[in-house]
Every structure is written in structure tokens, then in C-alpha cells.
Amino acid sequence: MIQHTANKPVSELFSSDNQVSYYIPKYQREYIWKKENWESLFDDIDEGFGGHFLGSIICINTETDSLRAPNLELVDGQQRMTTISLFYLAIYKYLSANLPVENKDAEYKLYGLMNKIVLENKKPRVTPSYTSNNLDDYSWIYYDVFRDGVNKPIDKPKFLGLRRMYKAFDYFCDRLNEIGENDNPIYDFEKVQELLKKLNSATIVKIDVSSHSDAFTLFETLNNRGVPLSAVDLIKNKLLGRLEKLDNQSIDQNFERWSKVVSNLTDDYSTQERFLRQFYNAFKVDSDIEVKRAPKAIKSNLIKIYEELIDRNAIGILERLEEASEIYNNNIEYDQSENSKELIFALRNLENVNGADAYMLLMFLDKRFNIADKQKIELVNLLCKYFIRRNVTDTPNTRNLSNYFIDIIGEINELSVYEYNQVKEIILRIGRPADDELFSRKLQGNVYEENVGAVRYVLSSIELNRSQTDEIYTNFYERNKKLFIWTVEHIFPQGENIPSSWVEMIAGGDKVEAESIRSEYVHTIGNLTLTGHNSQLSNMPFEKKQNREKDGKYIGFKNGIWLNDSLKDAIGWTKEDIVNRTALLSKEAVDIFSLD
After folding, report:
1. Quick one: three-class SS letters along 429-461?
2. Distance, first Cα to last Cα, the chain
3. Helix runs in 118-211, H state only
4. Where are the domains of the chain?
5. Where are the alpha helices (DSSP H) in 480-555?
6. Rounded distance, CA 39 to CA 282, Å?
7. What is the b/e burial string over 117-138, where b = at least 16 CB atoms within 10 angstroms of the residue's CB?
8. How far is it, in rounded angstroms, from Cα 333 to Cα 323?
9. What is the pLDDT of residues 372-428, one digit of tens each?
10. Closest to 145 in 3D by CA, of 121, 117, 164
11. CA angle at 63 for the pair 220 and 212, rounded to the nearest 5°
């Protein structure tokens, strides 16, 4: 079934010494990676020390002429290989724009990079699928970067900037040109060259199969049964093996203790790994935990850190993990009878706002000061405000966020007692949250497109601020069979095929004007609300959205929530209505999430 398997550096898969090409079948799904994937790839490469593992790809050699270079069909790994190509293109664009004058060595290396992306026939090494303009978008990016170095000019696709292929390329370009503190660029020519070396040294397991049948069988195996050992598994094996050598209890007893640690962290692997990273990052202020040359636990060094901690004191580290996992569990599985209603509500908000780094701080504070519920509620409410501002504005960015919280913990560790105002001052000073001006400006932009999760949090918070009482509370994150009961609804529909009733209402029948309004305003907060059964409203005329019923109850804009008060009896919906409602809701949000 498998012809060949090898763990290859990316530089070899994209080697300028061969003409191997990769294509994604026309019928394959469109490019779907988004910001969190691009961000993770960039940060993992940048923060690592080279050799970062990027997963696997499955290929079929469809070239029948043995004298020609292999033309490999990518059965699995299209998202990964396409993103790496876009990353290479962004790096090439940066290096060519910042090439030192009369530096032959730099010119030669740049030419080598070009040959990783461009074949001798001037065609791209990686060819995306046709689906959803993938190929057209990639071809234009490819042409725009190289211009005279590739084939004849092509037309720029319409709405290019709205699709993910270009957004991915634009994201990598923005990161490479990012401005840091004191208005100094974070990257320069040498640093980007170093980043390129790390990308080249990253590895991918390349699996060659002979047929689509073999590829399908293998694909099922890799995704459903043959899952490789995770970092958590490897740390567990190391710990239990070490404890067995120390003759510390029986292997079964130690396994039960470890299993309790893991069960405290839920059965979600990402939560388990996050805890192990955050445990080290929070408690490395203790000399017993700190590992030299490991200022921060990240995916690439996590196993090495715990190997040293286990070799140093396996019994002690298990005890510390047991205690910390109990604390962590109290914060992530908060809906417990011993918790007050106010604490449950605060921790639910923290979960909904996706404030993951806050759990590291709470774990440290609970251990260091054993803070009371009232103190925790006050702090969690502050952290929720901090994180919604961060999520809407991307300030501070993800790369710096964990570092800031590590520094916050380091300074709080110097306090002799817990005092909220001191802790708040440290968080806001070191954490550098977005100010009101930036927060308001981002709220008035295409906020749904940037972060739909943040939109849900903002809208639900505004609604609860207006309507919640001791007796009345609506959980806008409640689910039914994993689907949200309440959904974020576009008042003016978001689809490109605008219904005629909406063209008439929003633009007096002018399709071009309607599309212009859709492009500029459809994802702004003033055009968004909360309803049930989103899929049943979607493209309905405005009046039907107002009066929609199910089982004798209004589920449209007459559903009784404050957010829809201005919509339930309105005679229409215009651009001016969107603009005015955007201003109103953004001001509400700035007031609710004030850090004063």
C-alpha cells in the first residue's frame, strides 16, 4: 500500500535541485485555513529552534513518463502545503524588497528561494484546486510577487481580498513588516533570512502511495486509528517509567494519580497540553521548576522541559501537577454546586471570551495567595474586559500575549499579599490592552469577519447589561446537540447573491450600490443581532425576519430582547440605520468593557 515514507525537511520538498511539482485535485475542497492556523504556523516556526514538525502529506505520483519529474497529487495535506507556499511567497516579497545593495550572496540565496517556488517552466511548484477561486487567487499572488519572472500578466480576480487565499498571504506579509515597540520593525533582512532557515528546516512526513484506493485506506487509518503518541502521552510514559525505577508506589497507583491529573483537565487534548505549558510558565518563578535555557514552554520544547523536571524530581513534579490540576479544574469546570452564582457567571464569561492565558494567572494566584471568591470574581471580570478588547483589536497580538502574562506573574510573585488594585495595575501596565479609541474603531469596522466569536460575546454582553436581573438570565452560549441555540444574525444578508427585496430596500433597486453597501457594512456590528434558528432567517425579506414565528413564539426580530427593540417595528433597513446602530452599539460596548 505504502510505496515510501520519509520525514523530509520542507527545503527538500521544495528543493530547487529538482522539478517535483504538487497539485491539488480540482474537486478538492477550497482553502479553509484561517488566521489562527496562519498564526500558529508562523509562531511555531519563529519561536522554535528549527526542525519543527508540521505533520504529514499523502501523495500519488500521477506522472507516467519515467523521464519526467514527478507530478504528485496531494491527497492529504493540501492546506499545509498551500500555506507553506504562501509563506515562502511572502518571505520572497520581503527579501526582494529589502535586498542589500551589491550583496551577491544575498542575491544568490534569493534566486534559490525563487526556484523553490517557481519551476523551470515558470509554473508554480504547488497548484491549488479550482474550487472557490483558489487557483485564480493563488495564480495572481504568484504573478504579483514575481511579475517578469513568470508567465504573461493575468487579471486580478474580483473580490480577491475577501477570500482566504489572499488573506493568508497578506497575513504573512503583515507579520514580516510588523512594527514593534518604539516604532522599530520587529524583523529586518537578517531576521527574515533566519526565519527562512527555520521554515526550510521544518519537517513533514511524506507518504507515497500507488493508488487512490491505497490513499483512502491510509487516510482513514491516520485520521481514525493510527494516531501518533502526543506530547502528553510521552510525558506520561516518561513520568511513570521514572517513578517505577524510584519504587514509588506501584505502577497502577501512579497511573491512577496521573489519570486523575488528566481527568481534571477534561478529555480535550489541547486543554491538557495547554495546562502543561501554563504550569511551567506560571511556576518557573520557583527554582525547583525553572529549567535553564527554557524561558517559556512552547509546543516544540514541552517534552524536553518535562524530561528534565521528571529526572530532577519525579515524585515532586507529580505532586505539583496534582495540586495545580485541581486548581485548574475549578476554573475550567466551574459549574459546580459549591461555587456561587456570581463566580459561575464570571468564569463562564471567561470561557466564552476565550481568555486562555487568564487560566495561567488564576492558577498561580490560587496557589500563591489562595484568593477568596469575591476577589476572584473581581479579577475575572477585569480579565474578561481585557480579553474582549484583545480579541476585537488583536492588541496585544497573540505572540506577545503569553509573554506578557508570564511577566505579570513574575511581578505579582514579588507581592507579599494579594491586593486587587496592585494586581490590576500590574496587569494593565504589562499587559498593554487596547485603549478606548482603538477598541471603538475596531468595533465599528468589519468585526464579524475578523472575529465572529468576539461579536457573539459583545452582543450578548450588551443584551445582558440591558436586561439581566437576579431573576432573569439568558445564556446566549447554550447549545442543542453542539449547535448554538442563539446565533449571530446578519440583518442585511451577508451572501453575495443579494435577494431582490433587499436590493430594493437597501439601495432603491440599484444592484451595484447594494453590493457596495454589502461589501462595506454587512459585517459591521450595527448590522448584527442575536436570534434563534439563524438558518431559517438568512435571506428573508426584512418584514419576514421581524415576524418569523415557530411553535407560536416569535424567533425573529420580535423575540423580545433589547438588541432588537429598534428592529421589531422598523419600516425598513438602510445604510444609515446600520451606521447609526453601529455607533450606538460600539459606544455601549466601550462603556461595558471600560478598564477604569
Report:
1. HHHCCCCHHHHHHHHCCCHHHHCHHHHHHHHHH
2. 64
3. 134-146, 164-176, 189-201
4. 2-224, 229-333, 337-434, 440-592
5. 500-507, 511-521, 534-537, 542-547
6. 23
7. bbbeeeebbbbbbeebbbbbbb
8. 15
9. 999 999 999 999 999 999 999 999 998 899 999 999 999 999 999 999 999 999 999
10. 117
11. 20
Strands (DSSP E) along 77-211, which ranges?
A: 126-127, 203-209
Q: Give the span between the Cα atoms of 565 and 530, in whole angstroms.
A: 12
Q: Which residue is it, cell 453597501? A: 517
DSSP structural state of residue 148: G
Residue reference for cell 478598564: 595
Give me the amino acid identity at 426: I
pTM (2 decimals)? 0.74
| Contact between residue 285 and residue 409 where contact means Cβ atoms under 8 Å apart | yes
pLDDT tens digits for range 2-50: 788 888 999 999 998 889 999 987 756 789 999 999 999 999 999 988 8
Enter the C-alpha cell of residue 493: 444578508
One-letter amino acid at 234 equals: L
Torsion angle in degrees (nearest 10) through CA of 253, 255, 260, 266: -170
Place 225 in a pLDDT band, splitting at 50, 70 and 90: very low
Q: Indicate the residue type of 223.
A: N
Angstrom CA distances, 364 to 63, 320, 331, 369, 388, stand at 58, 12, 12, 8, 22
> pLDDT tens for residues 429-486?
999 999 999 999 999 999 999 999 999 999 999 999 998 776 677 888 988 877 888 9
Local structure of residue 296 (DSSP, 8 states)? S
pLDDT band at 227 (very low <50, low <70, confident <90, very high): very low
Residue 150, phi then psi, degrees to nearest 5? -125, -160
If we measure between CA atoms, which residue out of 398, 392, 387 comes closest to residue 353? 387
Biggest alpha carbon–alpha carbon distance for the chain: 81
Q: pLDDT value at position 399?
A: 87
Let me know: does 492 contact 527? Beta carbons within 8 Å.
yes
Which of 256-262's residues contact partners 24+ apart within 8 Å by CB, and which partners?
257/318, 257/322, 258/318, 260/322, 260/325, 261/318, 261/321, 261/322, 261/325, 262/232, 262/236, 262/325
